[in-house]
Design brief:
The protein has 312 residues and is α/β, with parallel strands linked by helices. It has five helices and 14 strands.
């Protein structure tokens, strides 16, 4: 199941306590303080990885804690630092801190990372508290608590081309015809229940496609499946608007989708758009309608021309 939202609690590691210790050496009747400092707590770090597709792990496991720092010890030995907890997310993940209602990170590319919460500092050992009047201090400093917060993770897929259109416009058929993706294809609404990514190399360019499912009239307000997936169009560079050439009203179908884009986010309606009539092999003579290209994914008609246009 494709999960593109999750809310999690995260807590960095606590710092280790400083040690209270005194030297015990032969021929030294009263050794001075030698308690070492505690180690720092581990941070929690998020990093973007292309090997992660969705946020399902974070919807299932909602609490994360980094390792605590270790206490200091005798002979001024410093406690070991707690290990950082490094968590992978898909590129395109946005992080919002729910305690402050602010966006704290947006990891768009493979390898990008950010420290979400920092571990607490380790405490000081009693070696730091010796004075001329107190040669045997039993004072030490405990480790500090690590930072903690509640995060909302929201995934917006990153693709070059977002394929939009009404259910049964032929989006899944097209993406399976041009790429290495094998989405489910059938002749009924909502065949695609989650976004599908596919890629194709053309003219030495790698073009990544996102098939955005479930856009119907009212999608922006929660009807159908579109309200769940409209956000994934926001990251695409160009929109490929697919319209079923066998429809009895091409203009109506086109305006239905355009209206949903406008209501969801006015910026979407300003994206560059290529309008393509699909299923041309099944359609007879169509009424005049302004479009850029006609294709048939089933026969291959117009596919090369489409890829060339997108590559440009």
């Amino acid at each position: 199941m494709f999960i593109d939202e999750a809310i999690i609690d995260i807590e960095a590691g606590r710092g280790g306590n400083g040690a209270v210790s005194f030297r015990h050496e032969k021929y030294v009747a009263k050794g001075g303080p030698d308690g070492g400092d505690g180690g720092d707590g581990g941070d929690i770090v998020f990093t973007a990885s292309n090997s992660i597709y969705a946020l399902a792990n974070y919807a299932r496991l909602k609490q994360y804690k980094a390792e605590n720092g270790f206490a200091g010890s005798r002979a001024k030995r410093h406690g070991k630092n707690g290990q950082d907890l490094i968590l992978s997310v898909p590129p395109g993940t946005i992080f919002s801190d729910l305690n402050t209602n602010t966006i704290v990170a947006d990891l768009k590319k493979e390898g990008e990372s950010f420290v979400a919460v920092m571990g607490g500092k380790g405490g000081l050992g009693n070696v730091h508290f010796a004075t001329s009047t107190n040669q045997t201090p039993h004072e030490f400093k405990p480790g500090e608590d690590g930072q903690k917060t509640k995060l909302k993770l929201e995934l917006k897929l990153i693709a070059d081309v977002g394929i939009i259109g009404l259910p049964n416009a032929g989006k899944s058929t097209l993406i399976s015809a041009i790429s290495n993706s094998k989405p489910k294809v059938a002749d009924y609404p909502f065949t695609t229940l989650e976004p599908v990514l596919g890629s194709v190399k053309f003219d030495d360019k790698n073009i990544i496609f996102a098939d955005i499912p479930g856009l119907i009239e009212g999608a922006h307000s929660g009807k159908g499946l579109g309200h769940k997936f409209l956000r994934h169009i926001e990251r695409t560079k160009i929109l490929l608007h697919l319209i079923d050439a066998t429809s009895d009203n091409l203009e109506r179908d086109y305006k239905t989708i355009r209206k949903e884009l406008e209501k969801f986010n006015p910026k979407l309606s300003q994206k560059k758009e290529i309008i393509v009539l699909s299923k041309k092999d099944l359609a007879g003579k169509t009424k005049p309608f302004k479009h850029d290209l006609e294709i048939s994914a089933a026969t291959g008609k117009g596919i090369k021309e489409l890829l060339r246009l997108l590559a440009q």
